[in-house]
Amino acid sequence: MSVMAKYVRIFWPDPKDDDVNRRNAAVATIQAWMSEFDDSRKAIQLASTLADSVSDGRARDFFTLKVEEAIIEAGSAAFVRDKNDLEIIVVALVSALDLIRKTPKIDGSQINALAAALWSALSFQSPVPQEPIELLRQEVIVAARERTMAIAEHSRKRALVPEIGPLTLPENQPTGSRANNAYRKATEPLVKALRENAELDREELEFLWWTIEDWSDAIGGRLSDADPLVRAVVAGLDGASKLRRLPAAGHRNVVLRGVPAGNQATLSALLTALGDHRATLAKEINANWVDQSAAVFPLLAAVRTGSSDRSGADIERDARDWGARALLEGGLLQAKVLRGN
């Protein structure tokens, strides 16, 4: 199946079969590069640079060299970066889109991180004036959101606890070593399942206690007494801090419980509404991670710096939308998907 056939016309009005085939080959090389990231943070940086490039039409160095090399290796020896930013951006974005769609959702923390980060980054931006690019951006948002929500649900399924396996004692090892290794091998699946389930139990208990307490140290009071915009953002960040995996729909429903619809605000107006609470919240934000991928964490970056200069900042969003965004961005920082686990 041709990956690029639908999108190649964004930069080529009348493509030939060979043109499409060469770009398909380039996509396969780029996807292999994306899949081999040894750190999920690299996937999040890629999403941030892709989103910035979609916004202003300028290809970023983080992915441009790799895309250029892939296109040349696929048979387009005369290809150069100069004046081909649109093609580079489209090929990179389509590579990510296809990878998000086809990779099994239980595999690859890097791809899961890429999906969640692209959802966060692209959904905050203002629409792109060029209709073909905007349609592609919307496709990526939908695919990334669907994968992220599926990951969040799947990652919380309890593992089946197996029976202890058979003990096998190799004859060519010392007696003590044989027994220890055999016991470890026989019990390893059981212990792994118990640990995973215990971690899920702990996450649920901590989130439940936080919900019952209705209290935030960031505002020094009850969440239910706070202004809707303040409550939404603080609850989103506080709730995310209790999670070990990406937030699911149930977590969003709990965080937004009691936050009324309405209370529209731009990013600048939101920072004003947070007032002195912004500085308190900023102390809990990992500046290094957020600064490296500011497009993925537009709300957290604004809370940390006090600056609202970013594509999408002028869009008025409902308090509940701001709360959901705080949960998503905070969840990305907290989740194992970012730590590569």
Topology:
Elements: H1 17-35, H2 40-56, H3 61-73, H4 85-102, H5 109-124, H6 131-154, H7 175-213, E1 215-216, E2 221-222, H8 228-240, H9 249-255, H10 267-274, H11 277-282, H12 287-292, H13 298-305, H14 319-334, H15 336-339
3D architecture notes:
With about 350 residues, the chain is mainly alpha-helical. Helix content is about 65%, strand content about 0%. The protein is built from 15 helices and 2 strands. A hairpin with a 4-residue loop joins strand 1 (about 215) and strand 2 (about 220).
Q: Which short descriptors sum up this protein?
A:
341 residues; mainly alpha; two-stranded antiparallel sheet; 15 helices; 2 domains
The backbone outline, from C-alpha atoms, is flat
Largest sheet: 2 strands, antiparallel
The count of domains is: 2
Total number of β-strand segments? Answer: 2
Overall pLDDT confidence: 89
Could you state the order of secondary-structure elements as H and E? Answer: HHHHHHHEEHHHHHHHH
| Helix percent band | 55-70%
Estimate the strand proportion: under 5%
The largest beta-sheet arranges its strands as 1-2
**What's the helix count?**
15
Query: What separation lies between the terminal Cα atoms?
Result: 32 Å
Specify Rg, calculated over alpha carbons.
Answer: 23 Å
- Look at the helices and sheets and give the structural class: mainly alpha
Q: Which ranges are low-confidence, i.e. pLDDT below 50, for 5 or more consecutive residues?
A: none
Structure at a glance:
By secondary structure, the protein is mainly alpha-helical. It has helices at 17-35, 40-56, 61-73, 85-102, 109-124, 131-154, 175-213, 228-240, 249-255, 267-274, 277-282, 287-292, 298-305, 319-334, 336-339; strands at 215-216, 221-222.
